[in-house]
Amino acid sequence: MQSISDIYFIGGFGTVQWVDVKEYETLQPDKIAADGGEQNLKELNAIFSKPLRKILSTEAEIDDAALISIDSKGIDIRVRQGAQFNIQRLSFEVVKGVETLEEAKRALQEIINKA
Prior knowledge:
single chain; alpha+beta; Split barrel-like; Haem_oxidase_HugZ-like_sf
């Protein structure tokens, strides 16, 4: 691809918008998302899946909570209640965002400690 003329973002749940090409070309992916994403999620799930399920169960019992994506600002969690699934977003309370697995662990531990 030599030249990008238009970018149209289509996300989940009706999220659609035009993306400025010049802005897009200057962006870099989040370090935490680009470096070892799948392995990072496996490790974070092993440590935090049960505690996250517990803190997300304040209104209704949750059968399972699994981290499915991470970026510098937070995590997306697939939550299962019986046969129903939904995605919940938890934002990190770190101003500059997280860049490494260790920073993500600390940020998640802070969320759990405050719950």
